[in-house]
Fold:
Amino acid sequence: MMVHPEVVALVRVAETLSFVRLRPVHAVVGNRAVVEEEVEVIAVVDEDLDLGTHPDSVVPRCIKFGSEFDIRDSRLDVIRTRPAVSSRLEQLLLGDPETGKGGQLSGEGVLNLVNACPNLVVVWLDSTTQLTDAALQGICQACPKLESLRITGHDKSSGSIRGSSMKFLAEHPEVAPKLKQLILYDQSYYNTEFQKALKKLSTTRKRLAITTGETCSSSWRDTSSTSVTLNGKLIYDQGGW
Structure:
C-alpha cells in the first residue's frame, strides 16, 4: 500500500511527538519545571508532584509524568485543585505502555481533572485501561480547544473503548471541533461495532486522522500494528513484526 504523503508525521507521532507540536524539554532538574527565556514552562514529573513551589507567573503549560511514575487519581487532584495551574494547562501526558503505569486511573478521576482544564490542547493517556467511551466523550466535551487525544491500553491488557464515543463525535461535530488526531491503541480494534463507529467518525470529520492498532510486545515502538484512517479511507496499514 502506498503511504499517503501526509500520513508520515501522523504515524511517527508515537516516536517524535512532532505532529502535535509538543514543546521541547530543554532541561529537567528532579521534579521541578525549568524556565528558560522564550521557552514555555514544562514540568516533567518523575518522583513526586509538588506544584506548590511554582509561582503563578511560571506555572507549567505542559505536564508530563515519567514512565515509572505511579499515576493515580489522587495525583491528578493536585493539579485540579490548583486553579492557577489547571486553568492554564495546555498539554497533559501520562502513563506508559511498557511499564503499564496509568492502569490505576479511573474515568472519574480523569474527567474531574479535564473539567478543570478548559485550555487543554493535547491529552495523551497511555495504559489507561479503565477509561471507557464515557471518558473519551467527556474529555472531548470538556476541552473545546482539544487537537490531539490519545488513549491506549498495553500489550498485557486491552483498553475499554468500544466505539459509542466515536459515534457520538460523528453525530456532534460541535464537540471538540478542532480535533485533528485521535489515537486508540489496544482498544476494540477487531470489533465490528468499533470499526463501524470509526468509519462513521472518519467520514464525518474528514480532517481527523484516527490511528488504531494493537501492541504486540513490550517493545511497542518496534512491534505495534498501526492503521491510520483519514476521510473515511485507510491510508496507512502496518502490521506488527
Q: What stands out?
A: The mean pLDDT is 78. Residues 8-238 form a domain with the Leucine-rich repeat, LRR (right-handed beta-alpha superhelix) fold (CATH 3.80.10.10). The chain has nine helices and ten strands. The radius of gyration is 17 Å.
